[in-house]
Design brief:
Decarboxylates L-threonine-O-3-phosphate to yield (R)-1-amino-2-propanol O-2-phosphate, the precursor for the linkage between the nucleotide loop and the corrin ring in cobalamin. This protein has about 350 residues and is an alpha/beta fold. It is built from 13 helices and twelve strands. A hairpin with a 6-residue loop joins strand 9 and strand 10. It binds pyridoxal-5'-phosphate (PLP).
């Protein structure tokens, strides 16, 4: 199934499938905050015009210092990126030719960057009945690889793995000189998130990657950061193009790091939506993942592959994320972002219509 490999930009999906794109589509395939960007960005929009006319600080000192202060670490342990995507690409370059373990199903970029850098790729595939990490099995594989990628909460399932489990894997990584790349692109949506950054001191092989584009709805601006051992950060910084972050992204980041109330409001909003959606899906007979994030996997258990269901939704103007390019899912689930009440209501209407045609 040769469908686009990412969510967002739904016209590509309609084009590939050969369907006319309805006028009023709702894109549930991009996992972006349903509240949109915080108001502070609009308030400062005009000042960005000034920023545009100067070269950005290639070190992004102010933002870096802010992150370091927030996390009680040194600036030497922080690297800013043109989105988490750039930081992951740098990790890929650092791991060129090495053996890597991907815990699947997960974000498809890990595999892409590892392949681009000639890595030898190993998989641990989670069972899609419970999505458990079999710590014993993974620890065994860690003995034979140079790096392991884990996404927490995991994209596409939304499942959050507790710190206790991650520490078991980290211990194995330290013992076997294996990097642990922890992608926390969606960490700030998790209601009871346990911060892993303090563990960096105890586990020098830990590399944490965070995105600011999801929580703050700025995928078009591109901003993320990485926390790792100072020597790893130095190595990555040497691989990064000069002025990789533009001055608007830097200024935006400085403003957004202060938006703690907005993050709390978002968590509350998403939780409230889940309280509506979870019982609705249960009542209708759909199966969904126990997500701790702002997206979830869903399937109609009557079918193995969700191909016809995806088509039906697209015709109705509902864009879901297909899962054909996720090893371990292979099209058996669809991923949906949690959007605002009005949009979720329309989704519920279309879901009801589907069930009526099927049962
Ligand atoms: C798990 C995960 N990590 C990283 C990224 C990249 O984020 P950014 O927009 O900051 O580049 C994404 C984007 O979809 C993602 O889903």
């Amino acid at each position: 199934m040769n469908l686009p490999s990412h969510g967002a930009n739904p016209h590509y999906l309609y084009e590939k499938i050969g369907l006319a794109m309805p006028k009023n589509i709702i894109d549930f395939s991009a996992n972006i905050n349903p509240l949109g960007p915080p108001g502070i960005l609009k308030e400062h929009w005009n000042s960005f015009y000034e920023q545009m006319q100067v070269y950005p600080d290639p070190e992004g000192r102010i933002l870096k210092r802010q992150i370091a202060e927030n996390e009680k670490i040194s600036e030497q342990e922080v690297l800013l990126g043109n989105g988490a995507a750039e930081l992951l690409a740098l990790v890929g370059r650092m791991l060129a030719g090495k053996k890597v373990l991907l815990i699947q199903p997960t974000f498809s970029e890990y595999e892409k960057i590892c392949r681009a850098n000639g890595c030898e790729i190993h998989y641990y595939i989670m069972n899609d009945l419970n999505w458990q990490l079999d710590l014993e099995k993974i620890t065994e594989i860690i003995k034979h690889v140079d790096a392991v990628f884990l996404c927490n909460p995991n994209n596409p399932t939304g499942i959050y793995y507790k710190k206790e489990a991650l520490l078991v894997l980290l211990k194995a990584c330290v013992k076997h000189n294996c990097y642990f790349i922890l992608d926390e692109a969606f960490y700030d949506f998790v209601p009871f998130y346990e911060n892993m950054i303090p563990e960096q001191k105890n586990y020098p092989f830990l590399i944490i990657v965070r995105s600011m584009t999801k929580m703050f709805s700025i995928p078009g601006i591109r901003l993320g950061y990485m926390v790792a051992n100072a020597s790893v950060i130095k190595k990555m910084a040497e691989l990064q193009p000069h002025w990789s972050l533009n001055s608007i992204a830097l200024k935006t980041g400085e403003l957004l790091l202060e938006e703690k109330a907005f993050v709390a409001e978002t968590i509350q909003y998403v939780e409230k939506e889940k309280q509506v959606l979870v019982p609705f899906y249960a009542k209708m007979g759909f199966t969904i993942t126990n997500s701790q994030s702002n997206f979830y996997l869903l399937k109609d258990p009557l079918y193995d592959k969700q191909h016809d269901f995806l088509h039906f939704l697209l015709k109705e103007g509902i864009v879901a994320r297909h899962t054909y390019n996720y090893p371990g899912l292979d099209g058996r689930w669809l991923r949906f972002a949690i959007k605002n009440r009005q949009e979720n209501e329309r989704l519920q209407g279309v879901m009801t219509k589907w069930m009526k045609t099927q049962r």
